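User: Can you predict the 3D structure of Lactosylceramide alpha-2,3-sialyltransferase? Sequence below.
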Amino acid sequence: MKMKRPSCFLKGTLKRVTLFAVVVCFLYILKLSFGPEECDMKKMHYVDPERVKRAQKYAELIQQGECRPSFVKKEMNRLFAEKYRANIFPFVREDIYGYEDVFKYKPPFGFHKNSHKLQNLLKLLPEHDLPENLKSKHCKRCVVVGSGGILHGLELGHVLNDFDIVIRLNNAPVQGYTDHVGNKTTIRMTYPEGAPLSENEYNPQSLFVVVLFKSVDFNWLQAVVKNEALPLWVRLFFWKQVAEKIPVTPKQFRILNPIIIKETALDILQYPEPRSKFWGWDKNVPTIGVTAVVLATHLCDEVSLAGFGYDLRQPNTPLHYYDNLCMAAMEGQTMHNVTTETKFLQKLIKEGIVKDLSGGIQCEFCKKPS
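Assistant: Sure. Here are the predicted structure tokens for Lactosylceramide alpha-2,3-sialyltransferase:
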């Protein structure tokens, strides 16, 4: 019996699929070739020595001030009432299956349709809380260190190192920038594409907190925890190169409770219900930075920020402290609503719930004494 040849319909479908794949690859290469405009670092804004002195003095006063137990949780409860859950557990634990709302949404807002993958991961992770030396501390001070270019030149590193918990975001480096950002890292919080590629940026004593944005992120985390090679088919689902070796032990890994993202996005920021598109989301996902701030309110008693603030009115200012991307690069992104986030952070600062050490959101130390 002779085998039937593929029908014309099948041939046409294969051609269309092939053409679509070629177009997607072409657009991706085009995007890499014409990426965000770079800033001329020689024209980087001059940092007034007087501003440096004021910033350092202000940061030192905040760090040395009274630590008030449960202060930030009480204030968040006061400001947001039922929108904020003070007793939520920050990192995913084995008893998470008792919380139905965790499985209502898909990542990053929940673990819908990823229950089995999560179960496999939790078997590999022996710890799900802060280390005992921090957990038992009577009153904890947190500082969330953002990646903003505003940090460059303020030389706040020595003050940031004195906080009990220093949270760093994504691939923001410490090496080469310690004067500005310090060298203490208690928590590195990121998603697969944001994890540092250099092994020198990992402190074996710090926690590595992963935000799971999509189904293949579970595969990535399992591979790095087990120190296994990432399958080629998994790599194809990431929009940039991901780290394949994270030099920390399994007991240092944590998974962010997705309820914190859901709480931040849907309850506090009042974003619309999650509606994923063919690629990415429609400005309803909070940045890692704002998510880390909300996480800090669950972990600590006092919370400060440094390196936060997107000033879209100054498109030619440096976006980050460690590269030469311009602020204008934020205009093209479609996932985050930085205007809404800025208003939220301004509210926290005006209400005295958190402190802005670098003055990028609201500058308290910029006010001249009367």
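The longest strand covers residues 141-145. The beta strands are 141-145, 165-169, 187-190, 207-210, 253-255, 302-306, 354-356.
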